[in-house]
């Protein structure tokens, strides 16, 4: 990978992070404060949410970088007669598996801090730390059978598509001809990732309300500082 490719990859990651931040914030606001349009515009909740989301996203990103840095050492232990298709499949699946584990641990333990960044103070709140501990298994299982399962299906389809057309060099173009398979795969990948983000923050927002107000729930009155 040369310097140009590195900057391109960083730019793509920044674009993805911006998209995911917007989707995550919009999902939380739509659930936690459905009448947000009636409140005056305030950048403070978004700023709190942004920095907390970045704090959870950064370890995932650094872990991905560490994986690719350690990749040459990992490849040495693989059989020498492994085909290119099988090699790519192993790398993608192992990376996805490790990212899923880190994602589940992080967002199960600290994910509820993201909805709380938006809601601010809540009148009548009665949530306790013990409630959060009780919700940990529920949040973990719902994240597992929700966004993790959805993203895993997307990865499996990507690996399957690559195995059918391993000579695909460019995702969007084959010379000057649009790569229909690559474009379809790109659109599908973005859609799956976006849906996984929405599912994640729908689960976190609902769990946050349940933690604060119990199963029945209460009418929430938000104070925007």
Could you write a compact summary of the structure shown?
The protein has about 220 residues and is mainly alpha-helical.
Explain what the structure shows.
- This protein is mainly alpha-helical and 225 residues long.
- Helix content is 73%, strand content 4%.
- The strands form two sheets. The protein has a two-stranded antiparallel ribbon with strand order 1-4.
- A hairpin with a 2-residue loop joins strand 2 and strand 3.
- The protein is globular, with a radius of gyration of 20 Å.
- The protein starts with a helix and ends with a strand.
- Mean pLDDT is 76; it is low at 1-8, 121-127 and 218-225.
How many individual β-strands? Answer: 4
Beta-strand content bin: under 5%
The gyration radius over C-alpha positions equals 20 Å
Instruction: Give the termini separation.
Output: 46 Å
Largest sheet: spatial strand order: 1-4
Mean pLDDT: 76
SSE order: HHHHHEHEEHE
Give the class from helix and strand content and strand pairing: mainly alpha
The parts where pLDDT drops under 50 for at least 5 residues are: 1-8, 121-127, 218-225
Shape designation: globular
Helical segment tally?
A: 7
């Amino acid at each position: 990978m040369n310097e140009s490719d590195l900057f391109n990859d960083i730019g793509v990651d920044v674009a993805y992070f911006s998209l995911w931040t917007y989707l995550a914030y919009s999902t939380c606001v739509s659930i936690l404060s459905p009448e947000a349009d009636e409140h005056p515009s305030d950048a403070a909740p978004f700023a709190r949410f942004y920095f907390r989301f970045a704090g959870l996203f950064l370890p995932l990103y650094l872990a991905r970088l560490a994986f690719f840095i350690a990749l040459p050492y990992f490849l040495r232990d693989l059989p020498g007669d492994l085909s290119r298709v099988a090699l790519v499949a192993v790398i993608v699946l192992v990376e996805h598996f490790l990212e899923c584990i880190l994602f589940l641990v992080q967002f199960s333990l600290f994910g509820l801090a993201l909805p709380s960044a938006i809601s601010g103070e809540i009148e009548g709140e009665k949530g306790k730390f013990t409630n959060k501990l009780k919700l940990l298994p529920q949040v973990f299982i719902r994240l597992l059978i929700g966004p993790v399962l959805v993203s895993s299906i997307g990865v499996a389809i990507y690996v399957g598509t690559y195995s059918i057309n391993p000579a695909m060099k460019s995702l969007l173009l084959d010379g000057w001809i649009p790569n229909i398979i690559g474009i379809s795969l790109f659109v599908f990948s973005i859609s799956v990732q976006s849906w996984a983000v929405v599912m994640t923050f729908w689960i976190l927002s609902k769990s946050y309300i349940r933690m604060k107000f119990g199963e029945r729930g209460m009418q929430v009155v938000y104070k925007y500082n």
